[in-house]
Specification:
This protein is an alpha/beta fold and 309 residues long. The chain is built from nine helices and 16 strands. The strands form four sheets. Strands 5, 6, 7, 8, 9, 12, 13 and 16 form an eight-stranded mixed β-sheet that branches. A four-stranded mixed β-sheet has the order 1-2-3-4, with helices on one face. Strands 10-11 form a two-stranded antiparallel sheet. The chain has one domain: Rossmann fold. α3 packs parallel to α7.
């Protein structure tokens, strides 16, 4: 059983068709790629310190071309044989910061909201998690996860192409819930955190990773026209004080937190696998302490919260 009978039944239809009933003119092409990818029987899968799959195959250039057709790759990196999928984000750097918090994921059932292509879910599995349910509405990311799991072939990770607010769990609660890089995109941040909390077991842990703005902004920075660091749909960039106010209002106790970390062009950048605009367009070229819109440059932070029993 995957997480619970409810989640098992909900996700089973997506094992044969990862896109479900979603409509997108690219789905046919993506499914063709899935069916063309090799599904190696003899392989070595490494998820503890990286996401790597090694196997015998002589189709290097054909395989790389197929995976490039699933671009843009936002999260990663991944090693598929000699192919290095050099994603826009060095997500391994964020995962190193999370690991410093010493949160035990062994034998936990986890919900990863806004999971992207599943990079972090694979790393969670490498750290001993039991089952990970990923929610990701972006179908490009869903196609990448389907391709990656063809190589990894884990039965312990499943993905639904849905947003959290569209999924109503009647009797399922998770040990750990992740929301990374989502809070500042919410029109109602308090409701987002409340929805996350409602999926947690009593005593469960909620991991929130977000951009934090300087304390001079009070509780939050509200970008003009919803743009911040060249990102659209940024509604509120909370300060540390503002984040903690939200947590307190929702009766979530702060278990631990990370230091602020400035985003750099080494952690987020254009690559062959994500050739569009990236972090180089986020900052003011004359003053790298400011975004292109004139706000303080992004700093990111982890919060680990506990749902009180």
């Amino acid at each position: 059983m995957f997480v619970s009978c409810e989640v098992d039944n909900l996700t089973k239809p997506y094992l044969s068709n990862p896109f479900g009933k979603k409509k997108d003119k690219r789905i046919e092409s993506w499914l063709e790629i899935m069916n063309t990818l090799p599904c190696p029987a003899n392989k070595k899968v490494s998820l503890k310190n990286e996401v790597r799959v090694d196997f015998e195959d002589d189709t290097f250039y054909e395989l790389k071309d197929l995976l490039l057709r699933l671009s843009p790759w936002r999260k990663g990196p991944f090693h598929i044989r000699e192919i290095f999928i050099d994603s826009e984000w060095r997500s391994d750097e964020k995962w190193k910061r999370f690991k410093k918090l010493n949160i035990d994921l062994k034998e936990k059932n986890i919900l990863d909201v806004g999971s992207g292509n599943g990079y972090y879910a694979f790393r969670m599995l490498g750290d001993g998690a039991n089952n990970i349910l990923c929610l990701e509405p972006n179908l490009v990311h869903v196609s990448q996860f389907a391709a990656l799991n063809r190589f990894v072939t884990s039965d312990n990770i499943r993905m639904l192409p849905e947003r959290l607010e569209n999924i109503k769990f009647s009797d399922t609660k998770f040990d750990v819930v992740f929301s990374m890089g989502l809070l500042y995109h919410q029109r109602d941040p308090s409701q987002h955190i409340k929805d996350l909390k409602n999926t947690l077991k009593d005593g469960g842990q909620l991991v929130i990773e977000t951009i934090v703005s300087p304390e001079a902004y009070g509780n939050f920075l509200e970008p003009s026209e919803g743009r911040y660091a060249s990102m659209p749909n940024v509604h509120y960039v909370h300060t540390d004080k503002g984040c903690k106010k939200l947590f307190e209002e929702l009766s979530l106790s702060l278990q631990c937190e990370s230091y602020n970390t400035r985003t750099t062009g080494q952690e987020q950048r254009k690559t062959e696998w994500m050739p569009f605009k990236s972090f180089e367009s986020a900052l003011n070229p004359s003053n790298l302490d400011l975004t292109i819109e004139g706000y303080p440059a992004p700093e990111r932070k982890f919060y680990v919260l506990e749902k009180e029993a």
